[in-house]
Structures are given as structure tokens and as C-alpha cells.
Design goal:
Helix content: 55-70%
Strand content: under 5%
Largest sheet: none
Radius of gyration: 23 Å
Number of helices: 10
Structural class: mainly alpha
Number of strands: 0
Amino acid sequence: MNTDDDFETLAPKRSGPSLKARAVGYLSRREHSRLELARKLAPYADNADQVEQLLDGLERENWLSDERFVQSLVNRRAGRHGVMRILQELRQHGIAEHHLSQVEHQLRDSELDRARDVWEKKFGVHADNTKDYARQYRFMMSRGFSAECVRRLLGDLPR
């Protein structure tokens, strides 16, 4: 007859790839922020300290880089989204403020051109009534473009 203590000693250890193998697997598919990778690895770790040590090692070995993650995300999103939306997404991934200010400066310079591309793809024709103007305005704002940029793009409110 087995007791609970006997069962724990007979139970197999967690199977599957090691924590580092999982991390490298995630990173080989795409760049991840430190916070995002920590969340993904947490269920497979024995404790939070183990994850932190692994992440520190991955950063030392240059497998993990928040700077590369920022550039990757900006490259994926910049063609379809405005500065505000990209910055919000970076904040959700736990990116430091100094990276955010660099990205904001980089994206502000091209925001009107990117907004024009998005607007032309979706609409292509300026609104001729207030209802269409409001619809275009809402769409562009939902994509994270600044109000000033959207007003410059759409022009004056039609009468």
C-alpha cells in the first residue's frame, strides 16, 4: 500500500524540453520582450527565481534583447498603426521608457505619411458629409494616429 509520500517519490519529473530549450524555441520564432518571455516560461519553472536567472543568461548571451524586440514590433506595426497605439503595445510588453522615447521620436517624423497610406488603402476619397468624416476620423484614431495628424490628413469638416 502506497502512502502519499511514496507516490511523490515515484511520480516522474516534469517531462519535455528544458526551460532554456523552451526559451530558445520561442526566441527562434520571433523576438520577445523580457516580460513576455517570463510570462510564457513561468508555468514550466519551479520558481520565479529560476526564470529570472535564465533571462539574465539569455540577455548576456544576446539571445534576448528588448531593443531588438522594439525594432521588430515597430517594423511589424508601423505600416498600419499610429504612434500612440505602438507605444501602448510596447508599454504592455514592459519596455523601458528610454526605448519608448526613441521610438516615439522615430515614428513622429513619418506619422503623417503612414497615416496617409492607411487612409488611402481604406477610403481613398475625402468625406463629403459629416457622417463620412466622422467615420474616417474614428477609424484613423482607432489605429492610434494622433488627432492633429488625422485633422491634417482629413482637412476641414465638410459642411
